[in-house]
Amino acid sequence: MRDLPKSFKSVATGAALKAGDYIKRNVGKNLSVRYKGEINVVTHVDRAAERIIVNAIKKSFPGHAILAEENDYARVRSDYTWIIDPLDGTTNFLHGFPFFCVSVALFKKGKPLVGVVYDPERGELFTSARGGGAYLNRKKISVSKVRGLKKAMLVTGFAYNIKISRNNNIENFARFLKASQAVRRAGSAALDLCYVACGRFDGFWELYLNPWDTAAGALILEEAGGKITKFDGSPFTVYDKELLASNSKLHSKMISILR
Questions:
Q1: pTM (2 decimals)?
Q2: Cα separation of 34 and 85, whole Å?
Q3: Disulfide engineering: 85 pairs with which of 143, 144, 189, 212, CB 3.0-4.6 Å?
Q4: CATH number of 6-140
Q5: Cβ density class 216-245: b for 16+ within 10 Å, e for less
Q6: Beta-ladder partners of 183
């Protein structure tokens, strides 16, 4: 996108890096933990990382709206909305399982402009700007070329309401286990999308995700040549509660499994 100010991406990147470095410094330390549900947790690290990102955005773009996971911010009237997950994979982080990230995205009038996902444990920075491709540590990335499910490694997740919801993804998981080479469950939707974008996974599906889980990763995937829809193939928005992402070559085959 030619009219996209470079400052949008640079602010998103700088904020994600700063928050991610703070998170990494707190791995393995004593944490203040609060439960938002029976198994849904938030730590003081989530909240502090979010403040780092929000402060960086407000400093550069005080008139922009912000949608963040851990706090309600005064919503201003703006064409621009930042969508933030300061720590995607909090349960992993809490247990010392090294699969978590920072996710920062910018939308204009509902359209994604910038997506940044930073994995502080691996030092991996995924970035994208609308129309400009997707990158991992400044190297351009693209989705895999796998065409058949039997050779595909897929990834999914299970929502926090798995114990009470009838639509809990377990039947889908069983079907894909039988149809594919392998299925993984890693615990960070933002990184799952980025791993499809760079060819580590070939496809991803999940239910009951929130905008901050997918906003940055969805753009990175699309800019890497992937495809993202709802389960039936209809257009996806970050406010939808079902997501199917793939290298595009597997998309119709994955839809047939989900029906």
A1: 0.93
A2: 17
A3: 212
A4: 3.30.540.10
A5: bbbbbbbbbbbbbbbbeeeebebeeebbbb
A6: 154
